[in-house]
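Translate structure to sequence.
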């Protein structure tokens, strides 16, 4: 993957989507660890977010086995059609983001399968991480929304 002069959001999105599913998950978790502290203050700005809906989907995932939890996250990225990925697809973009935030929190609190502690990002993912860290907070949020928006299955599209 080569970058030229400008790191437009679109290039970053494409770079993210060009990673394999596990690298996307790992990078996204590292992002959470990095930006997690700034996320809560952003929350009151929310208008199109449905916390109870994100929570409802999260609760279903938390009840799965760890293997199934990981599979669900891989399925979201791969657009595999399952009941849960269709439920996800029906959420608003910001609610999707909140759902991912809950998952990341669940990883830290032990209700969601954790990352192996020795897990390494690929060079591509590491590079992308650096570029994302260079963005303004609002640009980051917009980019993350673009990451999570197309995941899952939108059952209103045939
Ligand atoms: O064994 O306006 C591997 C709200 C493979 C409020 C793995 C907000 C090997 C409204 C795949 C590595 C708060 C919503 C295992 C705004 C292996 C509002 C597992 C902002 C086990 C703006 C990897 C919200 C796994 C924001 C399980 C900014 C990885 C939210 C999982 C940001 C990774 C949320 C996860 C972020 C990453 C969430 C769950 C960055 C989640 C990241």
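Result:
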């Amino acid at each position: 993957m080569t970058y030229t002069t400008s790191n437009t959001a679109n290039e970053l999105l494409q770079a993210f989507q060009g990673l394999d599913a596990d690298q996307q998950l790992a990078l996204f978790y590292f992002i959470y660890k990095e930006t997690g502290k700034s996320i809560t203050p952003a929350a009151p700005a929310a208008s199109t977010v449905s916390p109870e809906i994100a929570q409802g989907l999260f609760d279903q995932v938390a009840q799965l086995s760890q293997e199934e939890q990981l599979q669900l996250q891989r399925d979201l990225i791969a657009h595999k059609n399952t009941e849960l990925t269709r439920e996800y697809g029906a959420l608003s973009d910001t609610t999707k983001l909140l759902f991912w935030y809950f998952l990341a929190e669940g990883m830290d609190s032990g209700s969601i399968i954790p990352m192996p502690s020795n897990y390494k990002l690929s060079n591509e993912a590491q590079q992308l991480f650096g570029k994302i860290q260079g963005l303004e907070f609002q640009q980051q949020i917009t980019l993350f929304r673009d990451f999570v928006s197309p995941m899952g299955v939108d059952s209103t599209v045939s």
